[in-house]
Design goal:
271 residues; alpha/beta; Rossmann fold; seven-stranded parallel beta sheet; 8 helices; 7 strands; binds nicotinamide-adenine-dinucleotide
């Protein structure tokens, strides 16, 4: 018996990275998984991987930043699996060429990041919640980010999308509480995924050096793995979290526990 036996779970950006780990984990726990992704090769490969180990999954090849992409994904889940119990709003982009200030950021890049990282959350709720209402409840989970809480240089659109994601999560948790729909978010620290590797390489960094310094920046001394996030997502999606809504959870190796002075003050309090 799996914890999600027979549940219909949508994972956006579910082919690779954090979404890939979540798709695998939900399927291992018995869920019927609908994967929305714009990478056809990786989406097909993920479905093969799940079905060849006895799981149930389907792939929708679409852009999560569009109405049609989100609507067709919900329709596919309802048609194949009879409804939608869980939406993991994981999809997100941070293109290497977006690491510039707001003056330099092309307007189209702003629009694209906001559409994929934030508008997709609104669209998935718009189309999935009516089915959750019919079923008497559901769970919506976002991959937001520690960058929704604190910031750094050159990430205006990404930071805005993640702050917006957290705010929308909080707001929708109130609108949908009466429908027994829980809305929550996870804030990953740095996780070793294609996004992070592409960002390092795309901004001209040395991959091994940057991965090591990223690991050192986290109090636990390592970079996170996609499974670290999937574990939290499965917990939040489960009935074990049935009194949890409107909150975010940092899965960040201790990153958000540090103050700005953390690296200048020794463990003994000496400056
Ligand atoms: N990796 C990290 O360090 C980190 C940290 C904080 C937050 N996050 C967030 O976690 C989420 C997942 O990140 P990741 O690192 O696994 O990313 P990733 O780039 O490694 O994987 C993202 C997946 O989404 C798909 N995708 C991207 N844009 C899409 C679109 N418009 N339509 C459909 N599919 C699309 C990609 O093909 C890929 O399968 C994102 O929301 C990201 O912002 C990641």
């Amino acid at each position: 018996m799996g914890e999600f036996d027979g549940k219909s779970v949508i994972v956006t950006g579910g082919a690779l990275g954090i979404g890939g780990a979540a798709s695998l984990a939900f399927a291992r726990e018995g869920a019927n998984v609908t994967i929305l992704d714009w990478n056809a090769e990786a989406g097909d490969a993920m479905v093969d991987r799940i079905t060849s180990s006895g799981g149930v999954a389907q792939f929708v090849h679409a852009d999560a930043g569009t109405t049609e992409g989100c609507r067709s994904t919900v329709e596919a889940a309802v048609e194949a699996y009879g409804g939608v119990d869980v939406v993991f709003n994981n999809v997100g982009i941070q293109p290497p060429d977006s690491y510039v200030d707001a003056v330099e950021l092309p307007e189209e890049t702003w629009d694209k990041i906001i559409a994929v990282n934030l508008k997709s959350r609104f669209l998935m709720a718009k189309y999935a919640v009516p089915h959750m209402r019919i079923a008497g409840g559901g769970v919506i989970i976002s991959s937001a980010s520690v960058q929704g809480l604190q910031s750094m240089g050159g990430v205006s659109a990404y930071a805005a999308s993640k702050g917006g994601d957290l705010s929308l999560m909080r707001q929708m948790s109130l609108d949908f509480a009466r429908d027994n729909i829980r809305v929550v978010a996870v804030n990953p620290g740095a996780i070793d995924t294609p996004m992070v590797r592409n960002a390092i390489e795309g901004t001209g960094g040395n991959l091994e050096d940057e991965l090591m310094s990223t690991a050192r920046a986290h109090p636990l001394g390592r970079i996170g793995q996609p499974e670290d996030i999937a574990n939290m997502v499965l917990f939040l999606a489960s009935d074990r979290a049935s009194f949890v809504t409107g909150s975010y959870f940092n899965v960040d190796g201790g990153l958000m526990a540090m103050g700005a002075w953390a690296n200048t003050v020794g463990a003994d309090g000496s400056a």
